[in-house]
Design a protein that fits this description.
Number of strands: 5
Helix content: under 10%
Oligomer: single chain
Largest sheet: 3 strands, antiparallel
Strand content: over 45%
Distance between the termini: 66 Å
Radius of gyration: 18 Å
Length: 71
Amino acid sequence: HLYVIEAQGFPARVHRIEVASGRREPWRELAPADRAGVTGIRSAFLTPDGASYAYGFRRILTDLYLLEGLN
C-alpha cells in the first residue's frame, strides 16, 4: 500500500492506495484532541507496516483582553 496525506484543510486526511489496483480508501484523519489554535498538520510519518504513526502540527494561541472604564 501507499499512504497519501491531504494536508490541505483540517483535519488532514490520509488515504491508503492499493498499488496493484489503484483502489483508494480513507485510512485516518489526523488532528490533535485539542484543536484550538491549530493551523494544520506539518508532517506525518508511518512505520513500514502502517501500524503506527506520528505527526506534527503548528499551534498559534493568543490572549484577548477586554478593558472597561478607562475614561
